[in-house]
Amino acid sequence: MADYGGSQHGIARTSRAQAQTADQRKLELDRIEKYRDLENQVRSYHAQGDYSPDVFQLTTRLLRLNPEYYTIWNVRRRSLISGLLSKPSHGSAPSRASQSSSPSPNITPSSANLSPSSSVAIQPSREVPTVGRTGTTADSCDSASPIKEHGEESTENEQQQQQQDLDLLISELRFTIPLLLEAPKCYWIWSHRSWVLQEAIGRLQRAAARRIWEEELGLVSKMLFKDRRNFHAWGYRRHVVDQLEGPTLGGISRVESEFEYTTQMIETDLSNFSAWHGRSKLIPRMLDERGADDEDRKAFLDEELGMINEALNVGPEDQSLWYYHQFLMLNLVSFVGRATIVPKFNLEERITYMSREIEGIKELLEDYNNIKLIYEALLDYTIMLCQLEERQPDASERADLVVWLQKLRELDPMRNGRWSDVARDYGLQEKITTPAAIKV
Amino acid sequence: MDSLSDTIWDAVICGTGLQQSLLALALSRSGKNILHIDPNEYYGGPEAAFSLQEAESWVASLSDPNSQNNASNGGVFRAASITKPEATSSALKFSRSYSLALSPQLIHSRSELLAQLVSSRAHRQIDFLAVGAFFIIKAPEDPDHKAVLTRIPSTREDVFLSKAIPVKAKRGLMKFLKFVVDYDSEPQTEAWQPHADAPLTEFLRKEFKMEAELQTYIVTLTLSLDGRISTRDGLAIIHRHLSSMGVFGPGFAAIYPKWGGISEIAQVACRACAVGGAVYMLGTGIKSMQTGYSAEMELELTNGVTVKTRRLVQTDESASKKVVVSRLVSIIDSPLNSLFAAVVEGAQKPAVAVIAFPSGSLKTSTGKTWEFPVYVFAHSSDTGECPVGQSILYLTTPSITDSKEVLEQAVQSFLGAVNREQVPHSVYQLYYEHLGGSAGSRTEGQVFNFPTASPSLSFNDSTLKVVREAWREVLGEAATGADYMVFQDREGAVDDEEMYD
């Protein structure tokens, strides 16, 4: 549909300002009538509790016109559960047996932003015993058959059912794609996807379920390609990766490929808080999994420092880069009680690295002399170095601090309180003058 | 034929080059009687794209003294020849699987041309492809080694990733890129306006302390034919390049229309005017004209018919042409995939790559250093200009003695650099010289003359001004208050009916 920016009943919100011809108006009225007709049909089935395949077809048509009509998504799901998806009459599918031993894969708060109303969407269906979060079905209430034991071979009938379920779930996911492209922020579409993914875990063999989740990862990558800094998408990605790595999907660690993914994102656009943040979170586990020894860890730190310094060299005004640099520095100075990159560094090594970094950042001042983040970093790191060495700043450091604090007062007058505090801590307050005219 | 001579035409447009075609597009909804003719049997004029057979006919016509295309009759091309090495002649596929562009040009994403194509809705019929990375081809220190292709950085991420630039030079380059983004405001204007007419390279050296290598990168981004572009013009083009970066997708700053570049735009524009009621006649030119007797002038066409029209729009053929470039079009028997890799994973694969031999990097057989750049536009088969498995190189350099030889050498050097293990072959070469660059438009009574465009590697928006002038001439009073190149989709153009069935 052209101009789909979120519509009400199939009529584009961006109204066409120019006068419609009589023909165009008639066309629009026809469309409205067709839509209303469709809607009435679905609602009448729903009112009778009829969720036969016919209703399913109707929801397909209606949702294409208006994916924000969440009641219809519910009707569709009921239709899937009550007829189209198989009823596991002999009990659980193989992958479900292990579900009880793992925490219920609820969507974590961080990715809940993506579909905060998913619980709202499911709630109406809880009144009727249909599929809830943990995968119980309507039929298990009245089924007297014992839950099938994990490991028993599935019969040919079961295999066929699973194949049908797989095809159906895949087709559901495909159905949402064009809808997502037009309305990427429509929560109901995302919640339907999440529901399908959960069903995959509940109903399919582990390998098939895993493939579906892997494809989800592909979709998230596409989303992040379109908007690299969409932190909802990064959160959703972590949720998908967690599932893939978890016992339910018999997963293996994806830490290396996720790390590589952050590298790619950064190379596309240096200014990406989420990518740098994600990177920092992956490092401790990645080094552990590599079985990195002290030499490996030192080499790794050297590489990361090299990379971030190259980045700062071309983008010193970018805060996301300084945050990552700070993360690396903290690995050097703040290492008690936490996993760091180089836990076995002795004091001398830490001092050497810090001093080298400070000297490197000073070089940036040759060409970038009005960027406050550089002065801030120099200030913070010099103080950190002194604390590490348990000493006060020496004379040349004090001279440097004066210059930097002076610059910071000019460039960041909003934080004058802080700069004054620092000056006072080191007895430098008389040396820093209030600039006569603050440069705007 | 009777209706042709009976109609009082509001405008006869002669020639279907880009300027005339854009005029046709601009007039396509005006309801005016337009007769659009072209002495050639093809659309596109100097911006046409040819099949192999059309190229051969064209080359023949250039040496025919009776042909309108002949330079002595006002044509803008001369000295054309085709070479097909015997050994690889079997690699050539059938004639129509090629569409060789006579004037390949890339269009920056922020170009006014694209804005007009969109507002006039003509863009719906054009397939736009991405123009990818720009490269410099560096001569090896050791003459036994092959030349190396180096990507030119134009974004912060490019500079970050480049392994060829020292740390401090990177900072200098970043400062320049930031300068250009705001180059037309204070205080930047104070820095460059004193040097406005001096060569850009001098400005870079003096004000940014840039070394020769980085200067070459920047000048190449301007696509300056002689490498001596002025500071004023150079900064304008780089600004356009930088502000176009990423506009239509990550990693690219310019686009190229599929199926022959500018010629495709000309064809779409003419089609739009035809839909609007204009009459099109190829293979028809003007034999003679009579003016001054009434509001209409009389034109005798080459097909014997005489028509009456209020205005004639054509290209000024008598104008002196200054700029001469030599061009070489070479069909290559390899897809040259390494040139067309997507810059960013998931991004659109580029169909065009730009490679430059910097000034002074090539030598003639007599050992003379070639003091101009040689530009190579590499087009993949995605452009529709050649069959899958092959690619096309378009080379351009100023035309002086030995330019043909230098271009041929450049092809070999380039092929050696692009794939060291299995050097691809050139299976076809079309050489010609392209004149151009008369002054502005000229109106003589009822005749509006378009200037002859300067051969240029990137589309220059100033071309559009002249088209608008012509439009005003033709419409007269009706032009005031009318929106230029702003149309609505014709009914039925956008189909979203299916979902309601």
From TrEMBL, chain A:
One of its GO terms (molecular function) is Rab geranylgeranyltransferase activity. It holds the Pfam family PPTA. Its EC number is 2.5.1.60. It catalyses: geranylgeranyl diphosphate + L-cysteinyl-[protein] = S-geranylgeranyl-L-cysteinyl-[protein] + diphosphate. Keywords: Prenyltransferase, Repeat, Transferase. One of its GO terms (biological process) is prenylation. Gene3D superfamilies: Protein prenylyltransferase. GO terms for cellular component: Rab-protein geranylgeranyltransferase complex. Residues 89-119 have a biased composition (Low complexity). Residues 133-143 have a biased composition (Polar residues). Residues 1-25, 86-163 are annotated as: Disordered. InterPro entries: Prenyl_trans_a. Belongs to the protein prenyltransferase subunit alpha family. Catalyzes the transfer of a geranyl-geranyl moiety from geranyl-geranyl pyrophosphate to cysteines occuring in specific C-terminal amino acid sequences. This is Geranylgeranyl transferase type-2 subunit alpha. It comes from Lasiosphaeria ovina. The lineage of its organism: Eukaryota, Fungi, Dikarya, Ascomycota, Pezizomycotina.
From TrEMBL, chain B:
GO terms for biological process: small GTPase-mediated signal transduction; vesicle-mediated transport. GO terms for cellular component: cytosol; nucleus; Rab-protein geranylgeranyltransferase complex. It holds the Pfam family GDI. One of its GO terms (molecular function) is GDP-dissociation inhibitor activity. Belongs to the Rab GDI family. PANTHER family: CHM, RAB ESCORT PROTEIN 1 (PTHR11787:SF4), RAB GDP-DISSOCIATION INHIBITOR (PTHR11787). This is Rab proteins geranylgeranyltransferase. It comes from Lasiosphaeria ovina.
